[in-house]
Every structure is written in structure tokens, then in C-alpha cells.
Amino acid sequence: MSVSAAERARFRWHAAEMNNDVLLAFATYQRSRRLAPTTIRNRAWLLHGFTERTEIPLLRATLQDLREHLGRDGVEAGTARTERGAFQAFYRFCVEDGYLTDDPSAKLRPVRIPRAEPRPFAAWQIEAMLSTGARFKTQAMILLGYYQGFRVSQIARVRGDDIDREAMTIRTVAKGGKIRYLPLRAEIAELSLLMPRVGWWFPARDGSDAPIKGASVTDLITAAKHRAGITDPHLTPHSLRHSFGSELADAGVDIRVVQELMLHEQLSSTQIYTRVSRQRKAAGIAQLPPVTAPAPPARWAA
Predict the structure, then answer these.
(1) What span, in angstroms and rounded, lies between the C-alpha atoms of 102 and 180?
(2) Domain span at residue 40?
């Protein structure tokens, strides 16, 4: 029997009502554990997305519902893994706080991820993005991504107060809200002379005392990429960070140093940059000493 539009609308409203209270409680729980605001927002967005797509209230979802959502077409493995993590964190909370007696996510198997490969911009592509009409602040964002290895969320939140030109350090907030001090690249120190000495380098456009959002950084750098004529869909603003890690690894920088500079919690996250590039493979094979081979027999030549 077909379901009318009115019935579907009522069901969607009921699902949203059921979700709201428990999601607010889940957010409070996460804040009490001092989880990063970005993590809390992303989990809420993913959980809302499940209900929007399936029209199933979160507290009524079954293991099969979650599996079908993770296995839907058009979703990359990395996204599915993140969604699985959000489900497991949410449903563990629901059982702990008495919203549910059973955890429907408990039997979700790990999502298999293809072996990660870095997707770096080439140096000429970065130069092209800088020189094909990008505004000054967009250029600054590109340079922070390449020279400091910053994620877009870190770029968005750079302040003049974070720069110490005497100590040649830059302060940033890593995942989990951890404050870290990193070596300041000379080009960024020079750039800082042209940026605000205090306050946000990239303030929100609504006049509030807040930085722009990471998504806005993504949009601006993506526009610069398109103006530069770069059409590879695998190259994203995050690829500037991949360029940072790849160049360090290709230069022979110790993997532990690369890990610290990229603020990776696990060394395994850094190891994708130690895979040998095509250029290094070609340079390596070129090092083989030449040998003189005898002339082939006449019948081979024939």
C-alpha cells in the first residue's frame, strides 16, 4: 500500500521530535568529556543525515537499518567508517544513559578502507593557484596549507596572536582541541607582517568576533584550483597538506618528525607519505651502473 505525502511528512516530523531530545543530551555528554566542537557537530550532522535518508527515528533503528545505511551506493569507504564511529558513540551513550537497553551498532563490523595514498599538488599547480587571480587572503590560505601542513579548520582559525616571529613558532589547535606549537616557516613569518597582528586572520563576514568556517576555506581554495585550470577531482584543499607531508618524506625527513609536524596521533597515519614516489623510483633505477652486453647472435638480429 502506498504511503501518502501527508503520512510521510507526519512520520518525518515524529522522527525529528524523537531525535531532538536525545541528540541534545548526547551533545551535552560529549561536551562533558571535552570532545572537540567539530567532532560533536559532525556526529550530529551524520546522525541527522541517517534519519533524513531513512525516515527512521534513531531510537528505533535496528542493526539491519544501520548496515543498509552504511552500504548504500555512492558512499566512499572513509565516509562509511566515520558514520560507523558516530553510530557506535551515539548508541553506547544511549545504553549508558538508559534510552535503550540494547546497542544496535554493537555488531557493526569495521569498514574496510582501501590502502590510502597521498594526493598531493605538484609545486607548479600550487604556483598556478597563487598566480591566477586568487585574492591575497586566499593566497595566504594556500600558503598555510602548503608550508605549515594545516587542515582547512586550522587555516580558518589562525590568529595574529598565534605567530611568534622571535621564537619562529606558530600556535594551532590539533584534533581533540589540543594546543600545539609548530616551527614557523620563513614565508609564513613574512606573510604575517601583512596580516593582522592580533585577532583572526580570516574573520567571519557577519561582523562577529569569530573566524570563517572551514567549509569557506575549502570553497575559496577550490575556486582558486578551478581558475588555475586544475581539473583532477582527487585534488582538494586537503591535498595541500598531502603536498606538505609528501615533500618532507621525499626529502628524507625522519618519519617521526613528519608525524609531529603533521600532528598525527598515530604513526600509521603518517606512513602513507613514506611510500616511494614515482620520481624516486625512477631516480633509484637510474642509479644502476651500466654493463656492456655482447652483441646478440646473428639469428636473433635476423
Answers:
(1) 40
(2) 5-96
